[in-house]
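Run: sequence + alpha-L-arabinofuranose -> complex structure.
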Amino acid sequence: MSTARAVINLDLPGPTISRHVYGHFAEHLGRCIYGGFWVGEDSDIPNQGGIRLDVVEALRALRIPNLRWPGGCFADDYHWRDGIGPREQRPRMVNSHWGDVVEDNAFGTHEFLALCELLDAEPYVNGNVGSGTVREMGEWVEYLTRADDSPMASLRREHGRDEPWRVPFFGIGNEPWGCGGNMRGEAYADLARQYSTYVRDHGGNHVYRIAAGAHDDDVTWTRALMEALTPFGTPLARPGVFQGISLHYYTTAGPWTDKGSATVFDDDDYWRTMAASRRIESILAAHISVMDAYDPQRLVGLVLDEWGTWWDVEPGTNPGFLYQQNTLRDALVASVHFDVFHAVAERLVMANIAQTVNVLQAMILTDPDSGALVLTPTYHVFAMNAGHQDAARLDAHLLAPDHVRRVAEEEVPTVSVSASSKDGGVLISASNLDLTEPVELTLDLRGGRLAEATGLVLTADRVETYNDADRADAVTPRPLDVITDGDVLRITLPPHAFVTVRGTLV
Ligand code: AHR
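>> structure
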């Protein structure tokens, strides 16, 4: 068995890991909203006002901090007034991006905010720039958040909701370089300034406005947005007209035209996936360095509001519905991302996995016929890591020089660690990406001691293992031995495994 050591200073708390990096994304896409969250009031599936309660219960265990909606690409086709009022009278539309299906707008503003209340998650509403108007966006914010008898607040009351909602996050369009309008960076940057101006703070509701950002390593787009915030060439000295800039990055095993199967893959596919996953580190670093140049005080937040694996759809399913299975490989993609997110906590204020139910790297898959629900391996990573939310990052120095795998031109670390502390508790997360070799990991804790330490491990015999109706717990957390040896803890990371160790500071 190979060995590795992680030195963790328990008495040097770093920046807070925003709970919002454990955020989620639910789009009107395939069976995410319809069938996933929403079954309608007449369904046999237990629901509250049409929202399925088994999904809510499972997600409440993750303490999901925020939910982004209604898209994605759908957001720039969505007109919010179509989704209010009596459902049978709501206009229909074509969901041209996702399956070319007819959307009946049964799930609209009130249903989304009711869902957020059930989940105890903060709403992140994504507005329409591509085909909407400034007025439409401004009125939506007024409808959502204004308390008095303004025109939009009155309209909301006519539709049964007296109190305004709190909407802390608002997106200014989505992927404007592509599905959101095919714009150039400078053109969109001006629109982001304009639209953000009309996303008002009503009463005590303070909105964090998120300009739609780049994908992958397109730092030119990020630069255009930072230029728009600092038009006079001097570094940003106070919060600008928008406060956050988004970024999208998806992990695949191959080129965009050949993403690969979710469940059938060989070792090379696996390692290409791990290399692509680890690339999030250099991608975030590139955007952060551009932001640092314009905004050394870190007034603008980076928001990775779409991330996760994107595979070929499951055979026999609608290609526009992006339904994919989820194996232990997906779980490791998530655990590696979280270690990187923790490392850049100073600038990364939010991240949203795509997407919560039945689409891309989902937490939950539901059967379209029986309605039965399965928790994916990725779900368990979110659950095991939940203790990092709003905790202080602890720097974890990994001494594992031999644990590197060369994948084409890239060197992929095969062991990954991060740690945090909160309220006297410490949470350490570690992943072993190697497919065959276990690793004995020594946790060299300095500046303090843990009274007790317990461990969990998420693994399976094969990295292709997934959960389904017949084997719902094929990949599920199990207890892990944690050996206390003087001032250090020792754990064994099995091959292709994610583990957490939790303890209390004495
Ligand atoms: O998450 C699926 C799609 O991926 C989103 O709608 C879009 O923003 C991105 O291209």
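>> summary
The chain has ten helices and 26 strands. The pocket of alpha-L-arabinofuranose is lined by residues 27, 71-73, 174-175, 248, 306, 354-355, 360 (CB under 6 Å).
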